[in-house]
Amino acid sequence: QVQLVESGGGLVQAGGSLRLSCAASGRIVSINLMGWYRQAPGKQRELVAKIAKGDTPNYADSVKGRFTISRDNAKNTVYLQMNSLKPEDTAVYYCTASVATFLGNVNAYWGQGTQVTVSS
Q1: N or C: less crowded end of the chain, CB within 10 Å?
Q2: Model confidence over 81-120: pLDDT tens digits?
Q3: In which element (H, E) is residue 31 found?
Q4: Is the alpha carbon torsion for 19, 2, 55, 59 positive or negative?
């Protein structure tokens, strides 16, 4: 019904940059909240950044000043620009979206995850 497709993960050296993209497709009326989570091996999934439509973004303290979340509502796409990457940023990154459908329902959807690896 609604799918989120992620791209942009990869392997970079510490101090490098990556840009993640996540595009939502399907019968979508609107997307209120979009965000990124990450999960490192042996750790809980944590919120990285989120942005509600018409609002300012929120970031985890660990990424403030380095990561930037943005969205293109015409494309139903959310981005995560990651600069000054550190080895501790290594994780699987998941995008999420709260989607309103034509039936009036609001459901949360998740992407499949994309691996980000930062070497020292």
Answers
A1: C
A2: 999 999 999 999 999 999 998 888 899 999 999 999 999 9
A3: strand 30-39
A4: negative
